[in-house]
């Protein structure tokens, strides 16, 4: 696993990968700015007007709880775009990765596995669906953990573990679906859940590093291409010719 991570890191600035890296970083920056500003405005609205609206909807018995929630949200809104950028980074990288999965995987397969059958490009709609699904799920999980971050600090650990599970899950399935049906890819991920979660910890650590995390889609995808190859075992098309020569 460490070898796979080192190989993925070494390819980040390789000549064939540079164009994809710059496009990925540019798209991630645009999405961060747009989504972070939108999040800040949403939080500001809730801190100002949302408490009254929810109390009218839920009833006076919720007043104390909504006051606490409004206080939390007002703090989050005050952190503004910076908070939004950090908070949304794993979700954004999930979405960006779905756009560049085949570009990255093709380069990794050509360089490290030239004798093997290359994977088939994912349908664009399938790749986008997986990216959007993971991004939305990431946001939901983080919103649930947010109060714990502000009160106890335990939310940071939840963030990290959730990112490892969610990102490891998505990147592995994207890599696997180049060779398998979506159902087979998901089944393989479940059968190797512990290994893939551990691999996801590498991606979660990468996405936790400011600035560097803009390259997460490239690193995560390259890393999981290697992991899928290792978990797949020897390829039949390479074994059979060797047997016939004996």
Reported for the largest beta sheet, the result is: none
Quickly give the structural class: mainly alpha
Quaternary structure of the protein: single chain
Order of helices and strands: HHHHHHHHH
**How much is the radius of gyration in Å?**
21 Å
- Unreliable sequence segments: 236-246
Mean pLDDT: 77
Distance between the termini: 33 Å
Protein name: CysZ protein
Keywords: Membrane, Transmembrane, Transmembrane helix
Membrane topology: Multi-pass membrane protein
Subcellular location: Membrane
Describe the protein's architecture and organization.
The protein has 246 residues and is mostly helical. The chain is 84% helix and 0% strand. The protein contains nine helices and no strands. The protein has helices at 2-11, 15-58, 63-112, 124-151, 154-176, 182-191, 193-207, 216-232, 236-245. Helix 4 packs antiparallel against helix 5 (154-176). The longest helix is centred in the middle third of the chain and has 50 residues, at 63-112. 35% of the residues are buried.
């Amino acid at each position: 696993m460490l070898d796979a991570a080192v190989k993925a890191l070494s390819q980040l600035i390789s000549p064939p990968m540079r164009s994809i890296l710059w496009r990925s970083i540019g798209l991630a920056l645009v999405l961060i700015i747009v989504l972070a500003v939108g999040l800040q405005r949403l939080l500001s609205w809730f801190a100002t007007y949302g408490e009254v609206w929810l109390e009218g909807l839920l009833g006076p018995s919720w007043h104390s709880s909504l006051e606490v929630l409004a206080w939390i949200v007002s703090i989050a809104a005050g952190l503004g775009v910076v908070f939004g950028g950090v908070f949304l980074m794993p979700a954004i990288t999930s979405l960006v990765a779905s756009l560049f999965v085949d570009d990255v995987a093709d380069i990794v397969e050509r360089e490290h596995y030239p004798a093997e059958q290359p994977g088939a490009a994912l349908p664009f709609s399938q790749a986008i669906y997986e990216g959007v699904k993971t991004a939305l799920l990431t946001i939901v999980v983080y919103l649930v953990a947010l109060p714990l971050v502000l009160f106890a600090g335990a939310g940071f650990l939840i963030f990290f573990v959730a990112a490892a599970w969610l990102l490891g899950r998505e990147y592995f399935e994207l890599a696997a679906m180049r060779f398998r049906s979506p159902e087979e890819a998901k089944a393989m991920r479940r059968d190797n859940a512990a290994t893939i979660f551990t691999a996801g910890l590498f991606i979660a650590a990468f996405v936790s590093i400011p600035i560097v995390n803009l390259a997460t889609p490239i690193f995560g995808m390259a890393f999981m291409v290697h992991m899928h190859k290792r978990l797949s075992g020897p390829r039949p098309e390479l074994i059979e010719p060797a047997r016939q020569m004996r």
